[in-house]
Amino acid sequence: SSHEYKLNFKKSKEACLIYIQDALLQKQWKRAAEFLTCYVESLEKDYSREHIGPSEMIWRIGTEILWHHSQSNMKEFNCFMEQMKTLGVKRYLKVCLEHVFHLLCNGQIDEAYQNLSLAESWRFGEQTAIQDKEMKLIQAYRGLLDYYSWSKQKNILLEHGEDGFSDLAVEQEMHSYFRKAAVNLKEIIKIPGVWDIFVKCYVDLLEFYGDHNEARQVLNEYAYNSKFPANPNAHVYLYQFLKRQGESKKSLISALKILHDIVPSHELMIDFNTMLQKSKKRKKRRLGLEVIFAALDYAGWKENAKAWSCLARQVKQIVISEKHLDWIKQEWNSRKDWWPAFHFSRYLAKRNWQENKNLSYEKALVAGILLGKDCKYFKYVSHQGCKAQLKRFRMLKKFVNRHNPVYLRISG
Amino acid sequence: RDFNERCAQCSEVNWGLTDGGRFYCRSCHNVTERTREVVNTDFITNSRVQTISKGLRKQEKNDGGCEWYICEGFQLVLKKQAEALEALGVCPQMKDEILCNFWRCYLQKSKQAYCKRPAGETVKTLSACESSTDVDSDPERPSLLHLLSLSESDGDLQTDCSFASSVSKVSESTSVYSGSVDGSLYLMKNQKEKLRMTMPMTLSFCYMALLWLREPITLSELLRFVVEGHIPYLNVFQHFPEKMKLCGLDLKIFCVESWPVYEEVFNKMHELAAFLDLPRFPDITDSCFLHPDMLCMKYLMEANLPDELHNWTCRVVKKIGIGEVDFLTLMPGNKSTRKVKYDVLAAAVIVVVLKLLFLLDDHYEWLLSEFAEERNKNNTEGVPYFELKKWYEVVKHSLDVEQKKLDEERAKYLWRCEKPLFYSVKNKSKVLKRRQMVVNLQNQFGKLSGSVQRAEKPNPSSFQLSWSEENTDGSCFHGHSLKGVLQEKCGLLRAMNPDYWLCTVKLCNEKLCGHLAHYREVEFPQSYHFVLGLFSFLLRIQPSYIHDEVCMIEHKLFGKKLCKKLKYNTVLRK
């Protein structure tokens, strides 16, 4: 804008796109549609040198507008998508896939399935080979919908089973869906990628039919194959599977170890710490302490009474046994500068006491050990607790007073 | 056939035709003995004339088309443009006589018609497969890619390449590359020799005719009407008759994908006037619309400035002699005089006057405004003193609103039309399919645009900004008095401002670098930039063009003083 009185086709359409972009960002769908109407004639011009051509622009922008515009409906949307499919053969499968996503979002499972099947049967010379990845995705999603159908049949069967009936037709259908789903899901998870939902569903199928070995192999591959991107969920799925299978603590712990490395704040860290604390091996207990301290470094855990109770338990146990105080010292060393303000301020003491007595109890214990009986947090909470004549707080006070020298050793 | 001669009786150049085919002077009705020699006086597709000079030709081809030549196409374009101008109020003479005759003169001079077919002009059949990598190809035969690259229009090379490759396999006659007979030949011609016709040049023709008749339309207005769609230009080929099939290289010639540029149309017009050996144009006197005094009045009104400023513009005009007939009237072929851009000149005069009265150094003008504001508080004269600050606020607001509208229009500009364009018959179906899809999408999203439908193009108007004295909000400054910035001395009104700053001390050599000065916004006061911007918007040209004219005027105005000062300095140093 401003003082540019020359204009050509290209500049005009560039300006048009900027207006569309602004309108989209401000959710002004009518205005976006207005400018898009002017933009579409770009289709008649050749843009093969540009990175993103007008046909792709129109597809993406049009999709957004039709999805959000109040006067638009699914019929219009579908009609538009069909047009977009004919526009760019190089994008055909991608457009199909996105169309399917929209249908699923709108709850139109059957239409989505039809579109996937149709797309699967598409052939177009060398393009078929070039768009191989998209084809795999399409097959995978069809497999997913097959899984969904399998799941429905399974539920029907289970209901009937309770009544004592067994429906052969339903069973056969269920198995047929299983076969279809399994084939496609197995294929996609071979390719390195993030396939959480496919893996989950596939494992579910395998477990149902008793193929635990295959399930274990799949999950191991997914979690440990270095070609696959680092994915915390992979470890979570493996852990959950092993737990279901009743595996030993040892293998459970090893499954969670990497999760701790990748995501120290993961919610499973509580389970992890609990297992580690109980271990007979010194290294494991040491690790347990590390794990729980690391988890509480994160703001999301500040008010988690369970986490604090884990830490409190372990700290208490160490203090009583008077062994391995250096563990606490080590962990506290890097935290003593900021944990006091982060967890143990007077304000938090008041708030915790008001909102969650359990939380304040556990925290007070930890604070009392780490910061001594004269620290703000402990003083406030124990005073309040004793005032309220709660027995455990009186015990807490005694405990911390008794072990105050420990604090001196830790902080020194 | 020298219809440009001055009438023996009244010296006017205003010819008409009697029934007997003789020239008569419209001003004094003096009939001459000169007669028209051309067979057909009607301004239609002069196929007959073509046929006479070029011999018989086939009328019908297989697809219902006929043979047609590029210049016939341009002739149609000119006709349409002239009709549109007539509808805008231009006198019919322009279309029936002036433009028509200019065109014929051009055809003759460029040897496209009205002459014996120059030797070797039979259209060569360019056979297929002219890739530039082909070693065996005849070096005289131009490759298709070469032809496409010669064209000035900014089509994308990719389409050209794909077109070239798709056509390379065919080995028919010339009609493969273009619907017209001589499309490829046209692009091949050495343009320096014969002033090859282009779409922008049609506007040059129009402007030339308008100037000849001294019609009250400036070039900037003409171009604005083109952009607003009142004069056919973009997609004018859709009015070609059905049998004139357009394809291939014709598209390069007739399809426009950019707004016409002032400089280009202006320069071409002068080239054309010289090329046609036209005599001195009719005089631009002080009663003409194009005279700076007149145009200044118009622009002052449009810029919402006080009418009193007109006295000052007239004074400046008189002082530097730019109101003289000889200065203003076009003398084609005269390379020594600077070509006059009437509209830009008038705007520049106003800018200079504003500088004279208000200095515009981002400081003094606001002081003056405050001073006027104070005086206005006790003003009992009924006519308020002009306050620059108020004017600035009002005008800036309107300007911003209009500029915003214009920017949106630029983004919403539609370039394509219903008539499909295809490079070759091969991609016709693809083009038609695309067109259909575009129309479908336009319908679909057009409905979702809500109540905001594309408005009908506004009626053409000469004024883009209008201010009414009837508005009680004081937003019209026409009647305001300049007393606030003037002072009386010896019975004369002089500017209170004693200073002036020159835009540039030395003018550049226009022939070398194309400009008299180089305008960069950061180097000049904001007020100056604003004023340039205002006229830049009204005329739809870059501020730098107005800046050039301002420099030119300043040098005429202060040139002597400047020289004296320099001389004086050198004397002192000695």
Give me some keywords for this one:
heterodimer, A: 412 residues, mainly alpha, B: 574 residues, two-stranded antiparallel sheet, disordered C terminus
What would you note in describing this structure?
The complex is a heterodimer of chains A (412) and B (574). With 412 residues, chain A is mainly alpha-helical. Helix content of chain A is 74%, strand content 0%. Chain A is built from 23 helices and no strands. The mean pLDDT of chain A is 91. By secondary structure, chain B is mainly alpha-helical. Chain B contains 21 helices and five strands. In chain B, the strands form two sheets. Chain B has a three-stranded antiparallel sheet, with no helix packed on it. Classes of the chains: A mainly alpha (412), B mainly alpha (574). Chains A and B meet through helix 1, helix 2, helix 3 and helix 4 of A and helix 5, helix 17 and helix 18 of B.
Structural class of chain B comes to mainly alpha
Give the C-alpha Rg of chain A. 30 Å
Annotation, overall tally of beta strands of chain A: 0
Mean pLDDT of chain B: 77
Biggest sheet strand line-up of chain B: 1-2-3
Largest sheet of chain A: none
What is the element string of chain B, with H for helices and E for strands?
Answer: EEEHHHHHHHHHHHHHHHHHHEEHHH
At a glance:
Chain A is an all-alpha fold. Chain A contains 23 helices and no strands. Helices cover 74% and strands 0% of the residues of chain A.
Topology:
The complex is a heterodimer of chains A (412) and B (574).
Chain A (H helix, E strand, L loop, with lengths): L8 H17 L3 H11 L14 H15 L5 H14 L4 H14 L3 H12 L5 H5 L1 H32 L4 H21 L7 H13 L3 H13 L7 H13 L4 H14 L6 H9 L4 H15 L8 H17 L3 H9 L5 H5 L2 H10 L1 H15 L4 H12 L3 H12 L1 H8 L1
Helix pairs in contact in A: 1-2, 2-3, 3-4, 4-5, 5-6, 6-8, 8-9, 8-10, 9-10, 10-11, 11-12, 12-13, 13-14, 14-15, 14-16, 15-16, 16-20, 17-23, 19-20, 19-21, 20-21, 20-22, 20-23, 21-22
Chain B lengths: L14 E3 L4 E4 L5 E5 L11 H8 L15 H19 L4 H17 L34 H7 L6 H11 L15 H6 L2 H4 L4 H14 L6 H9 L21 H6 L7 H14 L16 H11 L6 H12 L4 H4 L13 H17 L5 H14 L10 H25 L15 H20 L38 E4 L2 E4 L14 H4 L12 H14 L3 H31 L1
Antiparallel strand pairs in B: 1-2, 2-3, 4-5
Helix pairs in contact in B: 2-3, 2-8, 3-8, 4-5, 8-11, 12-13, 12-15, 15-20, 15-21, 20-21
Keywords (chain B): DNA-binding, Metal-binding, Nucleus, Transcription, Transcription regulation, Zinc, Zinc-finger
Family (chain B): Belongs to the RRN7/TAF1B family.
Subcellular location (chain B): Nucleus, Nucleolus
